[in-house]
Amino acid sequence: MDINNNNNKDFSEEIVIALRQISRAMSIYSKSLDKHYGLTSPQLLILHELFQSDQIVIGEIARKISLSQATVTEIIDRLTIKGLVTRAKNNFDRRQVLIKITPNGKDIINKKPSLLQKEFLLEFSQLQKWEQHLLLSSVERIASMMKAKTYLANSMVAHKKGIHFKKKNTDL
């Protein structure tokens, strides 16, 4: 199969445009969250994870939400400054730092800010269950095909080896 034929190029362009539209919409929504709650989407995602987990180490948060450990650490720093999370040494393993959501962090989660736009959630909720599963499966498959986890793992390894990329992180 020739991956450079015209049909694949047209499909590639359409896919890139659709992914770009999704990325842009998520970026705009993240700015809206910041305006209304003082939190970006990744910060809110971490608070949701902590709300469900009681306390957890940074590496586990990073794994669960598919962000690098360095990025999660920076986000945790910001959430700590805002008084939404705390850090504490693990009593059983003093090398580990446990992250815990504060009552103020729980208050924000209890206000139910959505990780996704309300318009999307409304349309998504009106789909049949099989359609919802199909969309989720398709998005997961795209992420897998793009090797999103491989790139995340490589960036984590590079960071541990002291290799830093000159890319501004806009997810914070």
From TrEMBL:
SUPFAM superfamilies: Winged helix' DNA-binding domain. InterPro entries: HTH_MarR-typ, MarR/SlyA-like, WH-like_DNA-bd_sf, WH_DNA-bd_sf. Gene3D superfamilies: Winged helix-like DNA-binding domain superfamily/Winged helix DNA-binding domain. This is HTH marR-type domain-containing protein. Residues 12-144 form the HTH marR-type domain. One of its GO terms (molecular function) is DNA-binding transcription factor activity. One of its GO terms (biological process) is response to stress. Pfam families: MarR.
